[in-house]
What does this fold into?
Amino acid sequence: MKILVTGAKGFIGKNLIAELKNKGYNDILEFTRECEASLLEQYTKECDFVFHFAGVNRPKDEQEFLEGNFNLTSNLLELLKKHGNKAPILLTSSIQAEKDNLYGKSKKAAEKILLEYSAETGVNIYIYRLQNVFGKWSKPNYNTVIATFCHNISRDIDIQINNSVAELNLCYIDDVMAEFLRALEGNPTIKDGYCIVPITYSITLERLAELLKSFKESRSNLTIPNMEDALTKKLYSTYLSFLPEKEFSYHLKMNTDQRGTFTEFLKTPERGQVSVNVSKPGITKGNHWHHTKNEKFLVVSGEGLIRFRKLDSDEIIEYRVSGEKLEVVDIPIGYTHSIVNVGESDLVTVMWVNECFEQDKPDTYFLEV
It folds into this structure.
């Protein structure tokens, strides 16, 4: 199948082409504003499906709305008709088509001629009035406020909010791609005569700004956002895609003494925290117990001996572990426990605990095994 994509280098076009290739569609005809007009003539002869994304949403001159959104669509349809090509067409319109502004009017006009073309030729058309689409490869100060906020917040640039309670209706780029692939297969989601992306979200500008700022702060407080909330998960992924390339990494605070190091890595309000413990040869750490706090130890390098003793018992239970064969050891409550480096190199242990450390409620009591 030969698939024509206009606006192939834009935000939605780039994502679609990447996903088409992931799905095994390799015969993709890419058309951009830099292409010669003759190329569109050739592509409209060959294509089996058209994704029509090309358009203008932030022109220097308002007249470009008509030229970019209506005239290009009209030219595309004339070429398809000229070649007798009845390839289905998917058009990305906008919710602005319902409003009385030049951009909306140009989108509405493009919809109208597409509907007329379908009535005349019998060609299947899929018109999507997209809401605010966000995700990777979007452009700040162009595609969405989310792109602008992510770009600015990740670079310590101020953001502007004129109406904090204004609500945004959003759809995520991956959900858009999944729906477009359904349309490609002839199974679009339709509501009230238009095709829709079935998964959408709403959020106020104030809440959006709070979330994105919390993502930036998570590098210092180590707290991972709540990934059970679908919108938060997708916004976090989008935020990370805007990080400056020289700032992908960040340092952690290493608590160091003669025994080795202890470094907190990740914290979550719901599922506790993960830390990395490094012990020098011969060093014992632990020798304490907990009422409710429980842990998992995973030695990833070196050789260790994990020892347990129940508080009312003299029996000592031992587990010898090493980075040669990864083995998780649960640390039950009510058992005092320790970990000893019995090897000749540093012992590196990944430690998970079911709750984040609280200074005033440590639930940790010294007792030698």
Summary: The two ends are 69 Å apart (CA to CA).
